[in-house]
Amino acid sequence: MSMMSRTRSVPRPPRRAATLLAAFAIAAAGLSAPACAQDDRMTPIATPAQPGAIALNTGPLPGVIAQESWHRQYGSVFARNVTVATLTPFPPDRARATGAAVIVAPGGGFRTLSMENEGWNVARALAAKGVAAFVLKYRLNQTPADMAGFEESMRRMFSGAPRASRTSSGDPAAGLAAQVADARAAFALVRARAPQWNIDPDRIGMLGFSAGAMLTVATALSASDARPAFIGNIYGPLAPTAVRSDAPPLFVALAADDPLFGDGGFGLVESWRRARRPVEFHLYEQGGHGFGMYPKTTTSTGWFDAFVRWIGMHGHLGPAQP
């Protein structure tokens, strides 16, 4: 069964992308909820204020039927049916600014976006370290407008969707044209306003979670005009792929007990190594999928500090290197 809502306005992705989307959406629906969260009920909420959000120039999705809506689950906030991409800046205090920047791509199976746990909270933590952060709310595949219809579509998907392939190789951008276009527009905007935001245009990276990690890798490998200085893949798929000789340094964090990608091998890491590109890989014993910025007792919580130290090791937290 296709992951996609059966509408005429959204094209069905290639088979490999569809199976990956199925796995991501399982996580988006809360397959691995944080240990501290008990309420898995999806509760509709009013669209929250998004101060400073800037609409990107990629335009709306064509033929849209359902409009953007928001809900709360597991104590966090999610958006779905995003039709217009935006970028929300989280600037650091000027006294602490390092000149580095990160575009943050939340996950959610390309059906929802974990805007709080994998977006705003990550951006605030980066800003506290002196890194300018920008949360990318990218366009999503359409789902039923009403919450009951959305939940039913997810249940149908779970009952029929196969487990995603974690070892197949191919084009990481397959089926992600709209989302990669949004990421490219985000990089163009940040570089255009780099002087205004006190950013070094050569030190702009990208950090993605789950589906957002898939988008991050696709952007780095397929969008030559984006040119991220570094990328982070947090509990995204690790299928092997072709890696360019100028691919950016890669940071990977995954829990061994991740129900989606914990047993799929480490092909992406090996692909980076074969291309002789820098890569750092953290495999945590426990953490599940979707740990993000949730407070947990597992060592996976340390991924954020490790990521910040890693970008510092690459010279992105101090004066520009000659």
From TrEMBL:
<feature type="domain" description="BD-FAE-like">
    <location>
        <begin position="174"/>
        <end position="225"/>
    </location>
</feature>
<dbReference type="InterPro" id="IPR050300">
    <property type="entry name" value="GDXG_lipolytic_enzyme"/>
</dbReference>
<dbReference type="InterPro" id="IPR029058">
    <property type="entry name" value="AB_hydrolase_fold"/>
</dbReference>
<dbReference type="Pfam" id="PF20434">
    <property type="entry name" value="BD-FAE"/>
</dbReference>
<dbReference type="InterPro" id="IPR049492">
    <property type="entry name" value="BD-FAE-like_dom"/>
</dbReference>
<keyword id="KW-0732">Signal</keyword>
<keyword id="KW-0378">Hydrolase</keyword>
<protein>
    <submittedName>
        <fullName>Esterase</fullName>
    </submittedName>
</protein>
<feature type="signal peptide">
    <location>
        <begin position="1"/>
        <end position="37"/>
    </location>
</feature>
<dbReference type="GO" id="GO:0016787">
    <property type="term" value="F:hydrolase activity"/>
</dbReference>
